Amino acid sequence: QRDAKGQYLFDLLCHHLNLLEKDYFGIRFVDPDKQRHWLEFTKSVVKQMRAQPPFTMCFRVKFYPMDPAALKEEITRYLVFLQIKRDLYHGRLLCKTSDAALLAAYILQAEIGDYDPGKHPEGYSSKFQFFPKHSEKLERKIAEIHKSELSGQTPATSELNFLRKAQTLETYGVDPHPCKDVSGNAAFLAFTPFGFVVLQGNKRVHFIKWNEVTKMKFEGKTFYLYVSQKEEKKIVLTYFAPTPEACKHLWKCGIENQAFYKLEKSSQVRTVSSSNLFFKGSRFRYSGRVAKEVMESSAKIKREPPEIHRAGLVPSRSCPSITHGPRLSSVPRTRRRAVHISIMEGLESLRDSAHSTPVRSASHGDAFAAPGRGGRAESSERVAVIADENYSPADSVLPTPVAEHSLELMLLSRQANGAPCSIEEEKESEAGTPAAAEEAGGELRALCPGSLGAAQAEQVNKFVLSVLRLLLVTVGLLFVLLLLLIVLTESDLDTAFFRDIRQTPEFEQFHYQYFCPLRRWFACKVRAVVNLLIDT
C-alpha cells in the first residue's frame, strides 16, 4: 500500500524467508539520482523510492555479525554465507591466494558435495567462478583442497567453516565508500563490526575502534570524523565524497553502525544532527536494536530449525555465483526488472548473464588480486586473468565517468614479506540489476568534469538557501523575544518567573525610561492613522 512503512515490507520479507535473526539484514535500493540508500523502516516505502513502480530492491546483510559462526540458526548463517560469497566475488573480501583457495573449496563442498571422479573430471574447478579473476594455479589449488581436505563435510559444516575463515580476514564486513582525502588522494571509507577503517593505496591507513569515535558529521560533500584516542589525543579526519547525497549516505551508515556495535541498549540511541546549529543540517536516529540485544534475543529462540533449500553452483564463467531457478539469460529483460524475492534466491540479486570486463588487476607474490570496475559491458565475454603489472590506486578509475553497466572499481590485495596482505577496498556493485546498474554509475557521475557548471550552480543555490534560512530563523527569534517582552510588560500573569524579572532594577529602568515612552509614541501614531482614515 502507498502508506506502508519500510518495517512492514521488511517483516513481510523475513516472514517469507522464515528468518528470525533479522536485525543483521536490510533492504537496499537506488533513488532516481542513482544514489544508494538503505530502506528506512520508520518511513513510507513509496516516499523513499521517489520513482515509479515497479521498484527494484536488494536484500543484503547490513550489519555483519561480529562472529558469524556464533549465529543461532542455520538459516541465518546460510544467508550471511551467501552475502560473504558475493563479497568475495565482487572483490570486497580480499585475501592471499592460499586463503582464497580454501574459501572457494568450502563453497564447492557446500554446494556440490564430495569430490566424485565420475562427476568431476580434471579441471572441474575452472568451470566455476568464485572470484573476479582466476589463475590456473589457483584453480588447481581449489580442486586439491576440495579433493583431499573437505571430504565428508555437510553443506552446513562447510558454510560454518567458510564463515569462520572469512571472519578472520581484514576486510570482513567492509562496505566501501569512495572518497578523497584533503590532499585529493583517492580513499575508501568503511564501517566494520570492530570500527572505522580508511583504506588508501594498497594499505589501511586508519583503523579506529568504535569507542574512540566521538562524533561524525557532514557538510555538503565533506565528512568529518572526530576521534579521541589515548592520552587525550584528539584528531579530526576530513574526507570528501563524490556528491552531497553520497556524503549523507556515508554519514547515516556511520551513525547506524556505531549505534549497532557500540551501544549496550537501544534505549541509549539518541537523535544525531549533522550540524552544531539546530536549524541547519540533517537529523537522523537509528531505529533498530543493538548487537548485544540481538544476540540476547537470538539465545532465546526455541523452534525446529527451518528447512533450507540449497542449490548447486551453475558451472559457467559468466555466472559468478549460485542462481536458483531458471538461468536469467533465458528470462525476458522486462521480467528481470520486477522485484523477485524467494528463499531459493537468498541474497542473490537479479543479474544478467554477461558481466562487464574488469579493467585490470594485479598479483603480487602469493597475493590474490581483486577486480577492476570501469570497463564497458560487452556482448562477447572475455576470460578474466590475473595481470602481471602492479595496479596503483593513485591511478584509480574512480574519477572517470563510466556507463551504467560498467561498475567494477579497481582493487588490489597483496602479501609482503609473507605477512597477510594489506588491502584497498572497492565500491560495492549491485551487479546486473536495473537498480545496480544505475547505482554505481550514478555514484561516480558527480566526478565527471562536464558536470562542473552544474555543481557550481548547485553550490550557489545552497548558499542562498542557507542565507535565507539564517534570516528566517533570526526574524523568528526576534518575534519570540517581542512576544516575551509584551507578556512581561502588559500582561497580568504573576508567575514566579515573571515576578522575579519584573522586580529587577534593570527591567524597571527599561520599562519606565524606554518601553513606556515607546508605547505612548506608538499609540499616538496609531490614533493619528485611525483619525486620518475616519476623515477620508
UniProtKB/TrEMBL annotation:
Annotated stretches, region: Disordered: 352-376
Keyword Flavoprotein carried by entry: no
Database matches in InterPro entries: Band_41_domain, FA, FERM/acyl-CoA-bd_prot_sf, FERM_2, FERM_central, FERM_CS, FERM_domain, FERM_N
GO CC terms: adherens junction; cytoskeleton
UniProt main location, coarse: other
GO biological process terms on file: actomyosin structure organization
Pfam families per UniProt: FA, FERM_C, FERM_M, FERM_N
UniProt entry keywords in alphabetical sequence: Cell junction, Membrane, Phosphoprotein, Transmembrane, Transmembrane helix
PROSITE patterns cross-referenced by the UniProt entry: FERM_1, FERM_3
TM region positions: 467-489
Intracellular or extracellular location(s): Cell junction, Adherens junction
Annotated FERM domain residues: 1-265
PANTHER family: 4.1 G PROTEIN, FERM DOMAIN-CONTAINING PROTEIN 5
Role according to the record: May be involved in regulation of cell migration. May regulate cell-matrix interactions via its interaction with ITGB5 and modifying ITGB5 cytoplasmic tail interactions such as with FERMT2 and TLN1. May regulate ROCK1 kinase activity possibly involved in regulation of actin stress fiber formation.
Protein name per UniProt: FERM domain-containing protein 5
Species this chain originates from: Calypte anna
